[in-house]
Request: fold
Amino acid sequence: MSGSAPRGWLPTSPTDEELRMALEPFRSRIRANPRAASKLLREAPAAVAGQMLEELRGMRLRADAFHYFAVMKANRRAGRWQYVVHHFDQMLPQRIAPDLYCYGLAMDAWAEGGHWLQSLAIFDSIGSHTVPDAVCFGTAIRVCQKAADWEAACDLLSAMAPAGFKPDTVSLGAAMSACAAADAWGSALHLLSTMSAEAMEPDLICFNVAISACEMAGRWQTALALLDDLGKNCNPTATSFNAAITACGKGGEWQRALSLLSSMHDAAVLPDRISLNAAISACDNGGMWPAALHLLFSLRGQMQDPDHISFNAAISACEQGGAWHQALAVYQELILADLSPDELSYNAAVGSFAVSSAWVAAIHFLAEEMLSRGLCPNGLHAGAVTRSVMASEGVEAAWNFLERFKELWLAASAAEVAEAPSNLCVKSNELTEDAVQEVSLLARAPGAPQSAGRLRFNNVIFACKPAGLTTDEVVRKVAELLQPMPAALHVVSRLDQGTSGVMPLVLGGEGSAAANWLGAQFAGRLVKKEYICLCEGPRFGPVGHRAVLTYPLRVVQLSKDTYQVEVASAGRPAETALQVMACFEMQGIDEVRGASSSICSLLTLWPKTGRKHQIRAHLAHAGRPIVGDWTYGRREESSVPRCPRLFLHCRRIELRTVAGKDLAAEAPLPRELEELLEEIRQESSE
Reply:
C-alpha cells in the first residue's frame, strides 16, 4: 500500500458493515505494515476516523502512537477538540505511550476549548513518559498567553534553559502577550530587554506587543520610546502607531496623538480607520472638538467610511466642548451614514445640550430622535436635560420637568408600582465592633417608624457602607439582608472602597422606573450630598469659612484597571462647596515642616457634581489633601501618619422617591474616625 486509497473508497457516513467492507482490501497490507494504517486514518473523514481505528484493531492491528496521532490530527483539522481529547485519554489505559506530537495536539485541543488548566496539566504529565521538547514548551507558553497567565508563561520560559532549550522570538512573544493581557506591562518590557541581552533581534510582533502592553497600562511615554526603538530596527506598521496613539489619548496627550498620526505619512504608513478613531478619541479626552470633527471628515477623504466609534467619539468631544450644534450635526451625519445610534450616541448628544444649557433643543431631540423611534429616554438622558432646565429655570421647574419622565417610565413598566410590596422588609442590623466587615441599613428619614426591628422601604434602601468594602460587595451583603427573598438591587451612586457612609440602592433592576427616577436625580444634580473629611495643609480660613472649588477634572488611565484623576483645563467641570468646621494645630511638627503643614482642618463638603474621586482630587490640588489618602495625599510627610484609613465619610444624602416623598439618611462618623478625631483634639489643646 504505497499510495493513497482510491478516491471515494469510503462512504461519507458509513455503517459498521460498510466500513468493514471498505477496509477489507487493505487487510493484508496493514498486517504486513501496520504503519500503513496511519495514512488511511489521516485521509479518513474526522467523523469516522475513530470508528475506523476500532475496525482496524479488529483486524488485529497493534495500535500505537502513530495511529492515535493520525486520528487526533483528523479531528483537530475538523475543529472537534473534544474528540482529540477523548482519543488521547484512551491511550494510556491501553498501554500506549503518547509521543510528543500527541501531547502537543492534546494541549492545543484543551486550549481551543478554553480549558487552560487541563492543557497545562497535560504539559506537566509529559515528564512521566518522555522529555518535553522546545515545541511543547512553546505550546504551553501559548496556552498561558490565551489564559493571560503571565506568571506561568514566565516560569515556563525560565525552565527552558535548564532543560537545554533556548527560547525563540515566538515563545518570548507569546509570553509578552500573556503579560500584556494581564496588565503586567513591566514584565513584558523585561522580556523585550532579555531578547537584546541574549543577542536576539526582537521582531515587529514583539515590539507591537510591548507597545500594546504600554497602551493598556496607560504608559504613553514608554510606548513612544518603544515606537522610536522600533523604527531603528524595522519598519513600524499601522498596528504600532495605533497602539501608541491610543496610549497618548488615554494619557490625555491629544497633541502627541495628532503628531503621531501626522508622522505616519513620513514613515510611509497609511493610517487606517483604527488610527483615525484613536486620534478622534484622543481629541475627545482633550475636549478638542474642532480637531475631532476635522479627523472625522478626513476619514471620507481617505476613502474610508466612519463607524460608530468615529461618530460617537466626535459627538463626545463636542459634548465636552459644549458645542451642541456641532454634536447634533455629527449625530445627523451618523443617521445619513445608515448607522443606527446606540446608547453612547444618545448619551453624548443629550449631554452636549446639558453642558450648553440648551434645554429647549434637548427636549426637541428627545421627542424627535428617541420617543418618535419608540425609545424611552433613560435616567441619564433625563437627568442631563433636567440639569440644563435647572440652570435656566430653577429647581422647581427641574422637578416638574422630571415628573413627566417618571410618568413615561411608570407606563413602560406597568407591573411596577410606586410603593414597594408590603411584605418587603429587611433585617435591622447594627454596626458591630468589626465595622469593616458589617453593612447596616439606615432608616428612610430621621425618626422613621420601626416595628419589631423591621423597616418598610419605598423603592430605595440606604445602606451604611463601611470603609474597606467595594460598592459591589456592599450590594451583595444588602441582598443577604433582604427578606423574604433577595430583590433586584441597582446602584445609582458609588463610593470609593476607602470611603464610608450613606449609599442609596434602588429596589428594582436596571431600566426599572425606580432606577431611572433615582438615576435621573443624580445625573440632574438634584440629590443633596453631604460629606465630612479631615484634610491637612494650610488653613482654608477660620471656623465657619466657606469656599467653592471648581477645578475641572480628567480621568487618566494608569493601568488596565487603575485610574487616577487630575486637574486639567480640558477636563470636565466639577464643583465642590465646603465649610470649615474645626482647625487643629498639630504640636511638634512646626520646626521640621513649617506651620503650613501642621494644620488639620475638619470640613463639611457638598459636591455639586459627581466626578470620580472629585473631593479627593480637588482638595489635593488645593494643597490640602485628605488625611489617609495615599493616592492623592501625603504618606511619608503626613502630620497624622497613624490614620487607619481615608478620612472621608458620606454623612447625609437626601433625595425623592418615586412616590414623591423626600427621604434623607444620615450615617454617624465611624468609630475609628471618631476616636482619631478625639486624639487630635486632645493633642491640639495641649
In short: Residues 395-412 form the longest helix (18 residues). The two ends are 103 Å apart (CA to CA). The CA atoms of residues 448 and 455 lie 9 Å apart. The longest strand covers residues 576-585.
